[in-house]
Amino acid sequence: MKLLINIKFTFLLLLSSSNFPLFAHNILSENTVTHPTAIVLNVTTVNSTCQKSNGKVIVQATGGVAPYNFLLFGGFVSQTSTNGIFYKVVGGTYTLRVTDAIGTQVTQVVVLGNVLQSPNPINSNNVIGGQSSTCASQDGFLTINATGGAPPYLYSLDNINFQTSNTFNNLNAGYYYPIVKDFNGCKSYTEILLNSFITLAPNSCSIKSNSAYSALISCDPFREEIDFSTFDEGVPPFTYSRDGVNYQTSNSFDNLPEGLHTFYIKDATGTILLRTLSIIDFYCNPSFLVTETVQAATCGVNGSITVTASEGTAPYEYSIDGINFSSINTFTGLANATYTVTVRDFYGMESAKYIIVPNNCLQVIPTTTSSNCGNSNGKITAQASNGVAPYEYSLNGGAYSSSNVFNNLAANNYVVRAKDATNRVAIANTVVSNIAGAQIIAADTTATGCSNNTGAITVQTQAGTLPYLYSIDGTNFQNTGLFTGLAQNNYTVTVKDARGCLTTKPALITVNNNLFVDAGDTVKICEGKTAATNAISDATTFSWLPTVGLNNATALNPMANPTQTTTYFLTGTKGVCTKTDSMLVFVKPAPIANAGPGTTICFGKNASLQAGAGQASYTWQPTTYLSNANAAFTDVIKPTKDITYNLSVVGTNGCTSLQDGLVTIKVTAPPKVFVGNDTSIAIGEPFILQAQDVNGSGFNQFAWQPFYLLNDATSQYPLIQNIKANTMFSVTATTVAGCVGLDSVNIKVFDKPDIYVPNAFSPNADGKNDILRAIPVGIKLFNFFSVYDRYGNTIFTTTNAYSGWNGRNKNGTLNTGSFVWVASGVDFNGRAVERKGSVLLLR
Fold it and tell me: Are 291 and 343 in contact (CB under 8 A)?
């Protein structure tokens, strides 16, 4: 039902809804009391909150003559009740008047508290309302000044979105319902209208209206219907929209949720007017509908009531005493009596109803026929009496029918119901029993051997109807309970008696596994070595796992050479029998042959070998130059060339190294230093000695003797100083590696610069005095050396003082004779030196 009213009065109606009484069924007693006792009242109150009409008064009356009429009044409240329950009561002081059936009255003062205080009511004094200017401009505002209640406050225009600020800006023209909610959740509200006004020319707004809508209110569920009505100005026809995009010709909007809504009204010229409306649910819930389903008590007991609520706001709670509520809507175990059932919805609104649980003493007697063999072949025949025919029957809560016979029933407990023409129901419990077949006491088994054909089953049976038949496959039966020659398997033994009843029992034939498998004792080997396993078994086939490190994983005793300690599992098989045993091959790690670092030594020096410590024994190969080929530390005695040694070791665990250690001793070539051939110099002539590195050994240190005749005795090229007599100079040259080279030179000293030539020579190829040379002493520039025969012919000439005459001319060998020589040069002081003489050539 909907009521079309102006929105301004809607909330006045909502606020006064608590003045409307709730009505319930009025059940009068059929009994009267001739001499009534005094009326005694027991009053329970539920306080209201936030000044709402949500309190409750519950009155229980005894004595006097039932039924009672109840009246609660005081202030603006006046409620009547036939069940003693008053809903929607605001906190305050009231008078309770109770009148019984013969007019006896009793009164009592009832005080109902208010638990939480709301903020003071909002009115025009504490709401500052601005006006929205120039048609559709959103520049209106509201400021709310709240007092009372429990600060701090929250503020809202739609009862959904709350804010801490008490000012709302950017508002359209329209009706608003500002709300203040305090710390306890109590609310206060009012209505205010923001009007449009014109600040420009009179025709600048073509649509004007101060109200222009009405609202239709539905409280369950709470929704609004807005109807826009007439306008003061504007060019029809008008169209209407909620989003400013989709317009409709209808001026009605249904099923609007709670909240703040803006509407767009557009006239024929396209001019748009914005109007805003706050739709707020103030819990205007009316009484709601309660229906019931009653199960009569059976001869005074076991009645039940199931109630269903509608037209309220779910979820619901239910009570049969008006005090204790729960979500369960069925009340059971009830006797034949009249009950007051109360239903409370989500908003705390309540509706109550008197409900009678009637009495039914209808009887039903079942007769059973047993089933047999555990089959569903039993039967129940039910016979109803002490009711109003015709009767209908039901089994285990099934559908009712006129047949009183229930066939094909298994052995079980059953509930039989009979219903008469007045819908009274009788209930009886009965049992359909079973005539059992044979029972298998035991199905004893004998295990089969590894050949898998010697198992047996022996069946022992009792009860049932003789004779018995036996089967182990459910198809082929025999008259004995002994089955032989069976393989390993799961069997199902079936026994059938003379009535055809079958009974079964599982029987398991296992294997008597007497197979012997011993994988053997732990085998210890050195890393890299191989050893035989020592397994023993009477199996016929074998399998080793893992297979790595075994030469034959299907042999009883394979050779094993794993690289690391490994547990091997041997599985032996014989027929259907298998057994597994394990054996450990313990691998002792091979030692590492550490031959130590190599080195480079000088020719003629000793070296040493240094192996890593901690081994039991050492062997060096080859043994050349070694002082001890079986020691960890041994000397290499003056090796003459590079040599590489191999080291093999035996560890403390008795294992030999898998790989030899290698070390190389490098021998440098014998270092050679050359300081030149013997030579001659004059006294005072500067002369530089030269230590030449013949083999490129890399000399970096030099020591000359005698050092006092040299300007620097540690230089590779020292200058001779103050020498006055023949002297032999020696040098010791040393490399970075400490290798040493030695050499010396004889210096013959003359008292002055000159050119010397021998007076005879013998070029007979005996290696002695075969060449005639000029010997310059103190000569810095050698001009020439020439030889002439007695006829003045030039036999030999050279400008190289180291080049000499071999006693031959261009025609061949010359005979013994005398020859003349001439030599010329410049000494170290710059003086010319010329010498002449004769020489005798001897053969």
Answer: no
Residue 293: name the closest of 355, 211, 234 by CA: 355
Of the candidates 561, 647, 557, 559, which has an alpha carbon nearest to the alpha carbon of residue 610? 647
Q: Work out whether strand 541-545 and strand 523-526 pair parallel, antiparallel, or are unpaired.
A: unpaired
- What residues pair up with 796 in beta bridges, in sequence order? 787
Q: Evaluate if pTM is beyond 0.70.
A: no
Other residues' Cβ atoms within 10 Å of the Cβ of residue 709: 20
| Phi, psi dihedral angles at 675 (to 5 degrees) | -105, 10
Alpha helices (H) in 288-384, listed in sequence order: none
Lowest mean pLDDT among 184-188, 600-604, 630-634, 737-741: 184-188
Residue 10, SS3?
helix
Q: Around Cβ 628, how many Cβ atoms within 10 Å?
A: 13
- In eight-state DSSP terms, residue 226 is E
Would you say 394 and 410 are in contact if contact means Cβ atoms under 8 Å apart? no
Tokens of 153: 């406050």
| 328 strand-pairing partners | none
Contact in structure between 413 and 450 (CB atoms under 8 Å): no
φ, ψ at 776 (rounded to 5°): -80, 135
How long is the chain? 843
Angstrom distance (rounded) from CA 658 to CA 662? 13
> pLDDT tens for residues 284-312?
434 467 788 888 777 777 889 999 988 67
- Say whether 109 sits in a helix, a strand or coil: strand
**C-alpha–C-alpha distance, residues 406 and 587, integer Å:** 82
Report the C-alpha gap between 432 and 437 in whole angstroms.
16
Structure tokens at 445: 């088994």
Q: Which amino acid is at 667?
A: V
CA atoms within 13 A on the CB side of 215: 21
Residue 7, helix vs strand vs coil: helix
Long-range contact pairs involving 160-167 (C-beta distance under 8 Å, separation at least 24): 160/258, 160/259, 161/260, 167/141, 167/142, 167/143
State pLDDT tens for residues 746-793: 999 998 999 999 999 999 888 889 999 999 999 999 999 999 998 899
**Counting Cβ atoms within 10 Å, is residue 671 exposed (0-12), middle (13-18) or buried (19+)?**
buried
For residue 781, what is the enclosing H or E element?
strand 779-788
DSSP state letters, 808-835: EETTEEPPSEEEEEEEEEEETTS-EEEE
Helix, strand and coil content of the chain, in percent to the nearest 5, comes to 0, 50, 45
For residues 395 and 380, the answer to whether their CB atoms sit within 8 Å is: yes
Residue 485: name the closest of 446, 513, 525, 434 by CA: 446
DSSP conformation letters of 702-743: EEEESGGGBS-TTSSSPEE-S--S-EEEEEEEEETT--EEEE
The reported pLDDT for the residue numbered 212 is: 44
Name the CA radius of gyration of the chain, rounded: 67
Residue burial 754-769, b: 16+ Cβ < 10 Å; e: rest:
bbebeeebbbeeeeee
Phi, psi (5° rounding) for residue 707? -75, -25
